[in-house]
Write a structure and sequence with these properties.
alpha/beta; 496 residues; 3 domains; eight-stranded mixed β-sheet; Rossmann fold
Length: 496
């Protein structure tokens, strides 16, 4: 092989992001791409990596790559397949393709020329994935011909972590919102308004050809239809997972059959100016608070609802806290929670009382502004609130401001009231990813004439901030009047 540097090309496109449904030869094509890269390589001792999210995926990828080589006599002479270390070596120039499972040491001592990541959506559930992906991008950068390829299906839960970041960027590049990058997106997915339409046009098999590039080759439409009908009959969770994997339908607010009736109206109710505690204090004539959760396996959710001074619309802002126990016990959502913490929408606590202390500070800020009603200002789930009550009392917040809000079917009126206000355009929220996730997790159950809100997926799907919103809604429904400034504000001692 020639070592002439003129044959090494400086790439214009250095990163490729492909979103493609299952059973479209994704892993097989990925293996073939990396064998081709090794074949075309002119750099002596170059290193290429094919990384799967799990050992099983990595083994399948290696079987496909080695099978391609063993099927051709010329390739078998050129390349050596070392099964025990899942490595394919170019006998002529020493270049290697290493096939590995993902871990935080995958790049130790390595400066690869090319990297292919298979099933990146699984990495969204790994807390250290973003750090490793940053190392991969940096490791490839010094090589003029360096590249990173990501081939993945949609996630079987709402996109999170590094996968959510890459998917968001790919869509922005595709839609012309981000220019001048070296990333090429290849997204086999329906438009978002097509996915979220109430008529669900994506359920019509006639439309599936738009997102199945390998249809009638590695997958046949009749087999897909059969499995689709089975998933439909099983229930919303099975249908959601099937559609995410085989049609790249994004799980979230749109993909529910027994979800909360207010969910379809939630995306359009984001306040265009943005909301925070400070803007609620500035814009509202009265504020109520709702609190829910707080166990070591739960989020502690806070919701503030204010009534606008001018429009009389209701404005809500939410926040949440989690202890590290949640990340350990619910690893499937650890990446999402870390994302929310990184963007300031929640806190992952460093010590045991951090959540209660910070919650108390926020409640005290509203109290000192004089925007709570004289009584019934802070709605609590009556179970397990002793530490919260103690914290509030220690900050001088009167006990009669805190009231227990009946839960279960007795929240039904507030749930339905929030639905109506969302539909009528008189309830606005902060537009946070935290609440979009929680709303998407909510499942509505009818008990007689009442409605209960529970989780779509037991344990891993958190809805505590949404229940906190219903608690705050309950108190705002009483048409309260603010008590007025505290003595601290009157003396000019209030600091926001």
């Amino acid at each position: 092989m020639s070592d002439d540097r003129s044959v090494i090309i400086d790439r214009t496109v250095r990163k490729f992001f492909q979103l493609v449904p299952k059973k479209n030869s994704k892993t097989t094509n990925g293996a073939a791409i990396m064998v081709t890269a090794l074949l075309r390589n002119r750099r002596p001792n170059a290193e290429f990596l094919l990384i799967g999210p799990t050992q099983a995926v990595a083994e399948l990828a290696y079987d496909q790559a080695s099978g391609i080589i063993e099927a051709d006599p010329w390739l078998s002479k050129k390349f050596q397949c070392r099964d025990h270390v899942k490595t394919i070596k170019d006998r002529a120039n020493g270049a290697e393709l290493k096939i590995r499972s993902f871990d935080n040491k995958v790049l130790v001592g390595s400066k690869p020329v090319g990297v292919l990541i298979d099933e990146e959506h699984e990495l969204g559930k790994i807390s250290y994935a973003r750090k490793v992906m940053t190392q991969i991008d940096g490791g490839v950068l010094p090589n003029e011909e360096g590249f990173v390829i990501i081939i993945t299906t949609q996630s079987d839960s709402p996109p999170a972590g590094v996968f959510a970041d890459d998917l968001r960027l790919a869509r922005q590049i595709r839609d012309g919102k981000v220019l001048g990058t070296d990333t090429l997106p290849m997204l086999y997915e329906f438009p978002m308004d097509f996915q979220s339409a109430k008529e669900r046009p994506w359920e019509d098999p006639e439309n599936w050809r738009m997102v199945l590039p390998n249809l009638d080759r590695s997958i046949a439409l009749p087999r897909l239809v059969t499995k689709f009908r089975e998933a439909q009959a099983t229930g919303v969770e099975a249908l959601s997972i099937w559609a995410s994997q085989h049609l790249n339908i994004q799980i979230g607010v749109a993909l529910t059959t027994d979800g909360w009736a207010g969910a379809p109206y939630w995306p359009d109710a984001a306040d265009p100016e943005g909301l925070s505690i400070e803007t609620l204090i500035e814009r509202c004539e009265v504020i109520t608070a709702g609190i829910d959760g707080g166990g070591l396996d739960d989020l502690l959710g806070l919701s503030l609802i204010g009534r606008d001074k001018v429009t009389k619309d209701w404005l809500c802002w939410q926040y949440a806290w989690a202890h590290p126990d949640v990340l350990e016990r619910r690893k499937e959502i650890a990446g999402r929670l870390q994302d929310l913490a990184d963007t300031g929408q929640m806190t992952i606590c460093d010590y045991s009382t951090q959540d209660i202390e910070e919650l108390g500070e926020m409640i005290e800020t509203v109290y000192q502004a004089g925007l709570f009603p004289e009584d019934a200002a802070i709605g609590l789930d009556p179970v397990g609130v002793a530490v919260i009550v103690d914290e509030m009392s220690g900050r001088g917040i009167p006990d009669d401001l805190m009231v227990a809000v009946p839960q279960g079917y007795r929240l039904s009126g507030n749930i339905q009231g929030a639905e109506r206000k969302l539909k009528s355009g008189t309830l606005w929220h902060d537009g946070s990813d935290l609440m979009t996730w929680c709303v998407g997790n909510a499942r509505a159950e009818r008990r007689g004439s009442a409605i209960l809100i529970t989780k779509q997926v037991s344990g891993s799907a958190k809805i505590d901030p949404l229940i906190a919103l219903f608690n705050a809604f309950s108190l705002m429904s009483r048409n309260p009047v603010a008590s007025g400034p505290t003595v601290y504000q009157g003396r000019g001692a209030l600091i926001l």
